[in-house]
Amino acid sequence: MFSQSEENYIKTIYHLAAISDKGISTNAIAKKLETKASSVTDMIKKLSDKKVLVYKKYQGVTLTDFGKRTAANIIRKHRLWEVFLVQKLNFTWDEVHEVAEQLEHIKSPKLIDELDAFLGYPKSDPHGDPIPDKDGNLPQIQKSLLSTLEKSEKGVCVGVNDTSSEFLRFLDKQEIGLGKNIEVLDKEPFDDSFLVKINGKEMTISNKVANNIYIQKS
Amino acid sequence: MFSQSEENYIKTIYHLAAISDKGISTNAIAKKLETKASSVTDMIKKLSDKKVLVYKKYQGVTLTDFGKRTAANIIRKHRLWEVFLVQKLNFTWDEVHEVAEQLEHIKSPKLIDELDAFLGYPKSDPHGDPIPDKDGNLPQIQKSLLSTLEKSEKGVCVGVNDTSSEFLRFLDKQEIGLGKNIEVLDKEPFDDSFLVKINGKEMTISNKVANNIYIQKS
DNA sequence: AATAATTTTTAGGCAAGACTAAAAATTATT
DNA sequence: AATAATTTTTAGTCTTGCCTAAAAATTATT
Fold first, then answer.
1. What sections of chain A are H helices per DSSP?
2. With a 7 Å cutoff on the CB, does A46 touch strand D?
3. pLDDT of chain A along its 218 residues, tens only?
4. What stretch(es) of chain B map to CATH 1.10.10.10?
5. CATH for B144-217?
6. Dihedral pair phi/psi, residue B140, rounded to 5°
7. Cα distance from B145 to chain A (closest Cα, Å)?
């Protein structure tokens, strides 16, 4: 059994590994967890002893299969709770994260299985991120950052990269959300912004925003 | 804001105060929390500094109004989660306690208000214990221990004193539960056991069991 | 290749919350 | 009232998880 702190490290390393492919550096973990590199070194040693990850001094860490399964399980809980909060308790997609950060540490296999059933076995959370199954398998859907689309390409919004309240509330204000149809009408080379049509409405979107919206091309 | 450990002390002192009326002793707290008296002394000092309780050396503790409100709020969360687990996630009344012990520490006012609404503002938990309102008021229903009833008195089972899985599963086996009609047919002076009729069925109940069942007399 | 800059680790400490053992205060008993 | 028994507190330790400062290793730059 892992402490909340250990679980947070495991989850963070899993997320970092998903984008980096090589060993995860002490500094990267420290930055993500808003802690110090020396604290990370301490924890890494402990998690290495517990067979969660492989660690060689000065060379970053890699999760073991056991570590990956553990991480997927925490993420599964996090995302199921997010679905619960939005679907049953009237939370908005920008409010769920911090509560789910707490709920993900509740220990009870029955609880999470029953919650999954109660919610109708959802496949993804309110931000479009896939929910791992009980064995830790994470179904990956085909998606592209809006910023990588070419002129006249189109598709459906299926996820976001940045899940901060600020960004999500911005999207709400622009009426951009999961399931919306998006078409790139033009790209502006000067500032790499996009002219897009979202559910029939034309608007300009900055490169920074386009870099945080996932599209399933059609 | 209080740590989980602080919350557990506050809740425990509140429960002990409900049955004792005078100051709660260090030893009583230690026993209930399965810890050592010296640890209790440490924590008591901290909670006294935080204005949760009043403490004078060697004289036990009393919760302040602030402490009582804090305790009621924790208990409110605990009991609402228990209702959720039974009503929505197919938990039985003997399974809910330990999960609710974890869930009661989740910090989010919106979460608990929405949960309350989602459950239809329940008045009591699966064991018949009343749920405090948002201001910490705890409605007390009129109830008597089955063991205090006289021959030919009757009523409805509205609660249990012992909420251990062992006792609750025993009640399930005997088909005794909240809402059942109970009538005392006879009392046996030899071992203080009871001959009762429960929903039409006659059975003998030991004094120990009768001491843990609450009846609303009719 | 040597030096500079950066990253990572080590060493030593701190706070929370628990513990043991011993001292002090209170309560019970003779 | 004096002694015994019990309760409570103090003093000192331990673990977890964090910190700072300094040392060591790695990587980048000249």
1. 4-20, 26-33, 37-49, 65-89, 96-103, 109-118, 165-173, 207-210
2. yes
3. 999 999 999 999 999 999 887 899 999 999 999 999 999 999 999 999 999 999 988 889 999 999 999 999 999 999 999 999 999 999 999 999 999 999 999 999 999 999 999 999 999 999 999 999 999 999 888 999 999 999 999 999 999 999 999 999 999 999 999 999 999 999 999 999 999 999 889 999 999 999 999 999 98
4. 4-63
5. 2.30.30.90
6. -105, 125
7. 33
